[in-house]
Amino acid sequence: MAKQRHVIVGGGTAGLNAILAIREHDRGASEIALVSAERPYARMVLPYYLGRSIAESHVFTLPPARLAQLGVTDHIGRRAVSLDAAANTLTLDDGTVVAYDDLLIATGSSAVSISWRHFHASNRSRADELTSHRLARAIAPKTSAMRRRRSENLEAMVV
Questions:
Q1: For residue range 55-80, what is the model confidence (pLDDT) as tens digits?
Q2: Taking Cα atoms as reference points, which of 29, 36, 47 lies closest to residue 14?
Q3: Which run of H or E residues covers position 34?
Q4: Could you give the CA distance from residue 90 to residue 7 in angstroms, rounded to a whole number?
Q5: For the segment 86-126, what is each residue's pLDDT rounded down to a tens digit?
Q6: Residue 109 Ramachandran class (φ > 0 left, ψ -120 to 50 alpha, else beta)
Q7: Three-state SS at 4
Q8: Are 60 and 39 spatial neighbours (Cβ–Cβ below 8 Å)?
Q9: What is the CA radius of gyration of the chain?
Q10: Domain edge (last residue) among 75, 90, 105
Q11: Would you call 49 exposed, middle or buried from its count of C-beta atoms within 10 A (0-12, 13-18, 19+)?
């Protein structure tokens, strides 16, 4: 009998918990593939990272070694672009087709966009993205990044 194939789209808390629950239940008897546009990290600790209470390394939840230990095939840096539910396949942005028996779409929600004067061309960012927090740490003063409005650097910091 073929191994059960689980595909999880999204590297956040729900994706992590799904991987751990599957492995606790089947002890490695199935295949798990993780599709995540970013390296898996915990969004809820981003304010601590921004406030310099923790290092960036503590933000990440599933380093490559842990994924390998759990027997997870990773597609980090990839996005799902199409789904064929009849054929049980998911196509990624690089053309890779991933077959599945069970599919979990755990991409979470999107935060409200905020405007930052010193950010990318669209001048918009989301407060739940690690990239946004890296920028905020770089341009905001160390002691008051989350407490004070700094018109020369930030229009708003919402955490």
A1: 999 999 999 999 999 999 999 999 99
A2: 36
A3: strand 31-36
A4: 9
A5: 999 999 999 999 999 999 999 987 665 555 555 554 545 55
A6: beta
A7: coil
A8: yes
A9: 18
A10: 105
A11: buried
Query: Is there a single domain that holds both residue 30 and residue 100?
Result: yes
Give the Cα separation of 46 and 50 in Å (integer): 6
Using DSSP, how many helices (H) and how many strands (E) does the chain show?
4, 9
Residue 126 forms beta bridges with which residues?
113
What CATH number does the domain containing 71 carry?
Answer: 3.50.50.60
Structural domain harbouring 123: 110-159
Dist CA 46 CA 52 (whole Å): 10
150 phi and psi angles, rounded to 5 deg: -125, 95
Are the C-beta atoms of residues 45 and 73 closer than 8 Å to each other? no
